[in-house]
Amino acid sequence: MKLYTYFRSSAAYRVRIALNLKGLPYEMVSIHLTKDGGRQHTPEFRAVNPQMRVPALELSSGEVLTQSLAIIEYLDEIYPEPPLLPADALERAKVRAIAQTIACDIHPLNNTSPLRYLKRQLKHEQADIDAWYHHWIIEGFTAIEAMIAPGPYTCGAHVTLADICLVPQVANARRLNVPLDKFPKIVVADAACLKLPAFDKARPENQPDAE
Ligand SMILES: N[C@@H](CCC(=O)N[C@@H](CS)C(=O)NCC(=O)O)C(=O)O
């Protein structure tokens, strides 16, 4: 499989973790999201993903999957071990609720394109944009802190899709100096995950394209 990725992309980070947890080999193609105005906009990459975003996962059949959660759920269905979603429907809904709080409610507001739009089109100052970034992470993390089950991981004793989404979002928060002292359960779950080789190998700083 071929993963179109970028070291700093938290959505690609999610897929790297899932592939590592499943023990699946993959080749990485780095798409630099800022150089030359963003190489995700080249015609070559647009042919891979019409949305011009990473991640995209090219399967050995040549089929290309996009959207990190769709990719991860596909991998979980085709390669069921270890499972990334609980067998119980209620527990599964709780895992998806945390994953979607991050992937649907926090991350889209702090993503490269909306931030670029705030700056270039709406002419906001960098300080306002940073405040916006902090605000949506703090609001989302406040909800997640109340949703976290007794650990060590976000939803209990097993790593799930919720952890796969949480760890990259915490990395973004740290990179932008969002204070995490009000989120002790998030910090503990993040630390537990990062002790696992599958998470550690997927960290931005451990990628071949890291800067
Ligand atoms: N919902 C998508 C988000 C994908 C996404 O927005 N990726 C970002 C990097 S984290 C990107 O490629 N941004 C490029 C851009 O916005 O131009 C997913 O989960 O895969």
Keywords summarizing the entry:
211 residues; alpha+beta; 4-stranded mixed sheet; 9 helices; 7% strand
Question: Secondary-structure map with pairings?
Answer:
Layout lengths: L1 E4 L4 H13 L4 E4 L12 H6 L7 E3 L5 E3 L1 H11 L10 H18 L5 H9 L5 H22 L13 H15 L8 H11 L2 H6 L9
Parallel strand pairs: 1-2
Antiparallel strand pairs: 1-3, 3-4
Bound molecules: glutathione.
Glutathione binds next to helix 1, helix 3 and helix 5.
What does this structure look like?
The structure is a single chain. With 211 residues, the protein is an alpha+beta fold. The chain is 53% helix and 7% strand. The chain has helices at 10-22, 43-48, 68-78, 89-106, 112-120, 126-147, 161-175, 184-194, 197-202; strands at residues 2-5, 27-30, 56-58, 64-66. It has a four-stranded mixed sheet with strand order 2-1-3-4, with helices on one face. Helix 1 (10-22) links the parallel strand 1 (2-5) and strand 2 (27-30). The longest helix has 22 residues, at 126-147. The model has no long low-confidence stretch (mean pLDDT 97). Bound molecules: glutathione. Glutathione is lined by residues 9-11, 33, 38, 40, 53-55, 67-69, 103, 111-113.
